Amino acid sequence: MNMKVLVVVLVVGLLIVTGALVVLSYNGAVAKEQAVNENLSQIKNRYKTKLDILPVLLQQVDGYKVYESGLLTNITELRTQWMTQYNAGASAEALANTSAHLDQNLTQIVLTWENYPVLTADAIVSQYMGEVVDQNEQLSYARAQYNAAVRDYNSFIRSFPNNVFAGSFGFTDKPYWGTELPDGDTLNL
């Protein structure tokens, strides 16, 4: 009788420990996934703010006719594409890809702005360029925070014993927000 009681106690104890482990693993993954989602929202909000500044900036810059029209057209098209993707709930990868192309074009505007004294002296253009530069700095910070949250989340769901349960609960790796363009060039904003 004592042996049966001992076996039952051990089985029940094992089930309790396993259940607790599953609950802790699941709750931990949920918390880390929420941190990733929160940081992704920060990136999206920063880009949305940056894109809201662009129409006024492009209007001011266009008045100087110092840029090739293709650059302004590209930025306008990429802004529209990003907003469409954002409103449609596109993946982080799609938004990151469009953002990288947009940032590449904006880098050209920043370089041109720095090289044209007339533009640099224009108070309105300077104000909006300052805002774009500020948004780039905030985006850089938000991307770093997002990538740190992704690292923590991916490490958590890949670590034992969490990896045993993560897949069955639908937790999969999250992508990092990269600054690499499709052609392999790296942005340095």
- Helix/strand structural class: mainly alpha
Rg value = 24 Å
* Mean pLDDT reading: 80
Shape: rod-shaped
Present the secondary structure layout:
Elements lengths: L1 H61 L6 H19 L4 H24 L1 H5 L1 H36 L3 H5 L23
Helix pairs in contact: 1-2, 1-5, 2-3
Question: What are the key terms here?
Answer:
rod-shaped; disordered C terminus; 6 helices; 0% strand; 189 residues; mainly alpha; single chain
Describe the structure.
- The protein has one domain (2-169).
- It is built from six helices and no strands.
- The protein has helices at residues 2-62, 69-87, 92-115, 117-121, 123-158, 162-166.
- Helix 1 (2-62) packs antiparallel against helix 2.
- The longest helix has 61 residues, at 2-62.
- The protein is rod-shaped and about 95 Å long.
- The protein starts with a helix and ends in a 23-residue tail after the last helix.
- The model is unreliable at 181-189 (pLDDT under 50).
Short overview:
The chain has 189 residues and is mainly alpha-helical. 79% of the residues lie in helices and 0% in strands.
